[in-house]
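In the design runs reported in the main text, the only information available to the sequence generator was the tokenized backbone. The following block is the verbatim input for one such run; it is reproduced so that readers can re-run the procedure and compare outputs position by position.
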């Protein structure tokens, strides 16, 4: 009697587990799972992009601190004062 009860409860548990697995394979649940994964990946990419931007800003500040500052009143670029144009401009 106990053996029968054990095997019946085991069979019921296996049937419930199998039904849940089969319901997870329906097209609606597969689409929902794919959409959830896409949203999660998009969120991860946004976080990665933010981290990359922050690292770029930090690196740019380090580079700016390492370079000498240009003299005041100039744009920081050397001006080309030589005119090597053949037609007189």
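Verbatim output:
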């Amino acid at each position: 009697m106990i053996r029968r009860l054990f095997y019946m409860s085991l069979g019921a548990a296996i049937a419930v587990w199998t039904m849940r697995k089969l319901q997870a394979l329906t097209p609606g649940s597969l689409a929902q799972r794919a959409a959830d994964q896409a949203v999660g990946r998009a969120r991860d990419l946004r976080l990665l992009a933010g981290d990359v931007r922050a690292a770029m800003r930090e690196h740019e500040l380090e580079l700016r601190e390492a370079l000498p500052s240009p003299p005041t009143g100039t744009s920081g670029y050397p001006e080309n004062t030589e005119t090597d144009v053949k037609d007189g401009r």
